């Protein structure tokens, strides 16, 4: 935050604490592993067990993740952040080994059980990791820089993951999982050897029961109406954005099993996995080239307007990807979706940091993470819904999602197109 009479020092990656740097490296590799495999699990389970059942199974897996988030809130206070992260990464390592065995015996159900294990690991990881970040980066300008850098790197990890997964998931799944096991083990060792605990022994010695923590988290909703509407608005837009890896990926599996595109005179034959990966590569290129350029433009725009612009772009992109079979409009839809993500995600994270009460940051971040997991549950149900509705019907639902989210953000900002002022601790 800029103060009168004080010069604001520019934030650079070199000036960040080691904990933050290691966390960024770790998050990049973890996200890369997740998106090399899990976006394609829905397509695999849909092929083996059917689209309707797959949506319900993914819904169940996210429910376990939400429970893990609640448990993580207690454990981060009693054990400390680092121990919880180590536990979460150990569970993920076990899950990848189980997935490898599931592939060797071609068991869709064992694959599903290991997805549940991964959901638990992710639920434990995200709250502890987010609270650790708030512990070591209290300054608003530092947080903004980290959010922007983390989004940029994680977007690259997501797109690379989709690319690698699209190439190897179908034919070389076993080799892919062996590599993912090695990378996950490296991430675990990085946490053990390089990350220091950020919570004091006095704080971690304070005992909190799961029931007391759940009550504390629930009170966040009741005490802070701005955060309440902000979370509901985020939920609606998260559900919309997640349809790239939910409804759109399954639609590609159904409508583009094997397809041929002609671009600039070149004829390209692609299967569903490769087509989906191509779309995500385009996403990566746009994110890499456009994130910091667009962030400069957004400095002239209020946070409220930035959120709405991001929502509109995301909506248009998802609708195009969910309806068209034309190669040009698929590429255009992916481009518009990517721009929407670049605008919406860092802006939302910046607003979230302003809304968090420093004295209850663990509870606020737990609620924020629960909102995202609930959006994944609802998003997974859209897979089942998409098996009954036409593409046009799904597009109407996407439009309603966007309008609802914009209305709730309007309420969160107090009905004014303003920039929220950060809370004082």
CATH architecture: Up-down Bundle
- Count the domains: 1
Mean pLDDT across all amino acids: 80
The separation of the N and C termini measures: 14 Å
Structural class: mainly alpha
Unreliable residue stretches:
1-8
CATH hierarchy, class: Mainly Alpha
Q: If strands are numbered along the chain, what order do they take across the biggest sheet?
A: 1-2
Shape: globular
Helix content: over 70%
Annotation field: number of helices: 15
CATH names the topology as Growth Hormone, Chain: A
Quick one: biggest sheet?
2 strands, antiparallel
How would you describe this structure to a colleague?
The protein has 425 residues and is an all-alpha fold. The chain has a single domain, classed as MFS general substrate transporter like domains (Growth Hormone, Chain: A, Up-down Bundle), CATH 1.20.1250.20. It is 78% helix and 3% strand. The chain has 15 helices and 2 strands. The protein has helices at 18-49, 51-78, 81-104, 108-136, 140-168, 173-194, 201-204, 210-223, 225-241, 247-255, 272-298, 303-323, 327-355, 361-386, 391-412; strands spanning 258-263, 266-271. It has a two-stranded antiparallel ribbon. The longest helix is centred in the first third of the chain and has 32 residues, at 18-49. The two termini are 14 Å apart.
